[in-house]
Automatic annotation (TrEMBL), chain A:
<keyword id="KW-0812">Transmembrane</keyword>
<dbReference type="InterPro" id="IPR035906">
    <property type="entry name" value="MetI-like_sf"/>
</dbReference>
<keyword id="KW-0472">Membrane</keyword>
<keyword id="KW-1133">Transmembrane helix</keyword>
<dbReference type="Pfam" id="PF00528">
    <property type="entry name" value="BPD_transp_1"/>
</dbReference>
<feature type="transmembrane region" description="Helical">
    <location>
        <begin position="118"/>
        <end position="141"/>
    </location>
</feature>
<dbReference type="GO" id="GO:0055085">
    <property type="term" value="P:transmembrane transport"/>
</dbReference>
<comment type="similarity">
    <text>Belongs to the binding-protein-dependent transport system permease family.</text>
</comment>
<keyword id="KW-1003">Cell membrane</keyword>
Automatic annotation (TrEMBL), chain B:
<keyword id="KW-0812">Transmembrane</keyword>
<dbReference type="GO" id="GO:0055085">
    <property type="term" value="P:transmembrane transport"/>
</dbReference>
<keyword id="KW-0813">Transport</keyword>
<dbReference type="GO" id="GO:0005886">
    <property type="term" value="C:plasma membrane"/>
</dbReference>
<dbReference type="InterPro" id="IPR000515">
    <property type="entry name" value="MetI-like"/>
</dbReference>
<protein>
    <submittedName>
        <fullName>Putative permease abc transporter protein</fullName>
    </submittedName>
</protein>
<comment type="similarity">
    <text>Belongs to the binding-protein-dependent transport system permease family.</text>
</comment>
<feature type="transmembrane region" description="Helical">
    <location>
        <begin position="275"/>
        <end position="293"/>
    </location>
</feature>
<dbReference type="InterPro" id="IPR052730">
    <property type="entry name" value="Sugar_ABC_transporter"/>
</dbReference>
Amino acid sequence: MDHRSPLERVLRALALTAIVVFFMFPIFWIVLMSLQTNETILRSPPSMSFVPTLKNYAAIISGELDSNAGSMSIHFMNNLLNSVLLSVFSVALALLLGVPAAYAFARHKFRGSEDIAFTLLSFRFAPPLLVLLPLTLYFQALGLANTYLGLVWVYQLICLPLILWIVRGYFEDISPDIEHAYRIAGHGWFATFRKIALPLAGPGIAAAGLLAFIFAWNNFIFALVLASADKQPVTVGALAFVTASGIQYGQIAAAIVMSIAPTLLLALWAQRYLVEGLSLGAVKG
Amino acid sequence: MSAQADMPVLRRSSRLSRTLLPYLLSLPALLVCIGILVPFVTAIYYSLQRYRMSQPWNRGMNWGENYLNFFTDSSFWNTLQVSLVYAGLTVGIELVLGLAIALLLQRRSRVNNFVSIMLLMPLMTAPALAALMFKLMTNPNFGILSYFMQLAGFQDFRWASSPDTALLTVILVDVWVYTPFIMILLLAGLRSLPTQPFEAAALDGVPRFEQFWRITLPMLSPYILTAALFRLLDSIQQFDIIYAMTQGGPGNRLMVFQVEAYLNFFQSTNVGRSAALLLILWAITYALSNVFVKNWLRLRERAKGGA
């Protein structure tokens, strides 16, 4: 392994460059597009020399977009706000419900616990439309149609299984002896849970919460089916953008950049946690 | 547990809590999910009905007719075929690519670290938005990928708008988004392999190519299997990328299960057929998920044992 021929080194460097180019190019190119006017985007052949402009971003933020048919107002910032609200509240609720349940599954092998845990996990793998389509009819009857509450509830389908299964693994890794010692000292189970178990599983909870946030943010199908325009997150909003004819391409690109930036920055900031969560518990840092 | 039972102080207070507490703790999570089980049962009920929203007067039980109709329904076989081909090709390509990249990045170094962080970016991009990015890049007027194709000698390469290349286009997006996932899992696997077999093989002068086939691949196979099953489960249900790119078109070239069911429900308002389609998809994923969970739990046990 340590003795590499110069040829091998060159090939290796070439391969790594090709990989980085393949995986980074689309993001790079969309960012470039977002800094251009329609004239420079439509140049043929495409060129990378242009005077960057922030006009596209200004237009998105103000909500007044230029299209072929003059100015039209699309409030993409509203979509961004919806994404923030839906993701934050969904993850908060999932943590509130999921962490105690994960603790229960990890600490107590009670009757049916494996079956229940598996049932909860299997939600993650079932086709979402199977539940979503009948739910549209129920939501109308319950008055939950097109409400944040209804959406946050349905988002538990993605967030809850993730948190439950990742956090459970972390609780299982903590030796119960520490908790027993603390309880013998006269503390109740809740104090033990709060003072001992929670802090020890902290990194796992953070990793699970982060992943759940990213999956909630990136979700498309739930809101496509259940939300109308004023509740839609960026994923659905951006699609309407592209299909609405005649919006300037640079402005579409700017909207996409603003939609993917939060998750990408979060990933850069917390990449170690993410890798741990994403490797399905096959690795512990 | 037995240590706890011996403690007289604890016995009184914990007997009740030990039996009830776990249920109480998991109850809220369960309740939220039971609300989701109800529509699941409803979907089964719909799938056994003749139910079109446009013809409410005609609604009624027809038992298995929706399912029986599939046998003679060419668009159902098209859906099944497209879904299987899509899932097979994406997972196959992603496995080969992901494994190759993981092998390249195996050794910890600053460059390798940087590359693996860069690879996280596509995975963090919403698949629907990734499809839109590629839609812009394959636009016939200004798309950079269309331009590259022109340079490579393909005049009028129409990407997702041509039935010949639509599948290729969505597979490209899927590979772009999800290869890093497989890479991360396999890299974790590679780095957790014991070093002794490799050192022994190197001492014996076993060529590296042979080391790969005889040692690396067999030892890595539980990771490969877990990654492949997990991705298959997702890929066979793919909706976001395909819907955002072409909504199942051109024609019915990309009509995978969930896109077909979505259009059945909202466009042709054939609720019965839509539900039956989704239940067939559910049966496939349920079988796959059982195999996956078994493998996954075994993998986690192994990871814990090794740590």
